[in-house]
Amino acid sequence: MAFITVQNLRAVTPGVEPESLLPGQIAFNEPDRIMYVGDGSGLKTPYTGTPVQGIAGLGWFSVPLSPESLEYIFLVNPAYYGQQPADQNYLKWDATLGHLVWVPANAIQSAVIYITSNAAVSIASGATTSSKITSALGLNPQVNDTVIVSGDPGDLYEGYYGFIGAEWAFISHYAWPIALNVRYDNTASGMAATTVQAAITELFTLASSKLSLSGGTMTGDIEFYSGQPVNAGSY
Question: Per the confidence metrics, is the pTM higher than 0.90?
Answer without folding.
Answer: no
